[in-house]
Design brief:
Helix content is about 25%, strand content about 20%. Strand 2 (about 115-125) and strand 3 (about 130-135) form a beta hairpin. Helix 1 (about 25-45) packs across helix 2 (about 50-65). The longest helix has 21 residues, at about 25-45. Strands 4-3-2-1-5 form a 5-stranded antiparallel β-sheet. The chain has helices at about 25-45, 50-65, 75-80; strands at about 95-100, 115-125, 130-135, 140, 145-150. It is of the alpha+beta class. It has one domain.
Length: about 170
């Protein structure tokens, strides 16, 4: 019996502390780093949310970058056989709120109907993948009942205005 091996990846070995010699991998990692840093600077998000920024950038990269196997499809389309809806991807660092189910509230008349916070991207937290919202000391992960304002950034001193039409 003959087994044919298909080589999908070309592994390049380099010496210790010479990772810069592997250009393609370093370029990919630096692209993620620079994009995450730009998002964090735009939203004025604290450094403690760095890993959420990297995960969010990796998600955006996977849903927008063409696949190596089929250039007409993105990586996401090859994995899930459908196109992604980018209108539901909120800006990193914007105001976000997660609506609660009214039946779960102790006092349905006076309890807050939502948890407010800052959108820290689409990522995996405590084993759950979804929209992550930082509500002060807690991280809320949800896949539904989310609303966001792309013009309000809580970590800024004053809200950003909408771009003027000239």
């Amino acid at each position: 019996m003959i087994i044919k091996a298909i080589i999908i990846a070309n592994h390049v070995v380099c010496a210790k502390d010479e990772h810069y010699a592997v250009g393609a991998a370093e370029t990919a990692v630096n692209n993620l780093r620079h994009s995450a840093r730009a998002m964090m600077l735009h939203g004025n998000v604290p450094k403690r949310f760095w890993h959420f920024a990297i995960a969010h950038v990796a998600y955006i990269h996977n849903v927008t970058s063409p696949s190596r196997l089929d250039k007409s499809k993105t990586i996401f389309e090859l994995l899930f056989s459908k196109r992604t809806d980018l209108t539901q991807v909120q800006p990193y660092g914007c105001f976000a709120t997660v609506y609660k189910n009214r039946r779960t509230l102790q006092d349905q008349s006076f309890d807050l109907l939502s948890d407010q916070g800052v959108s820290i991207g689409i990522a995996k937290h405590n084993g759950v993948i979804g929209y992550c919202v930082s509500g002060g000391s807690q991280i809320i992960v949800t896949r539904q009942n989310l609303a966001f304002d792309p013009h309000l950034y809580p970590f800024h001193q004053k809200p950003l205005s909408a771009p003027a039409i000239s």
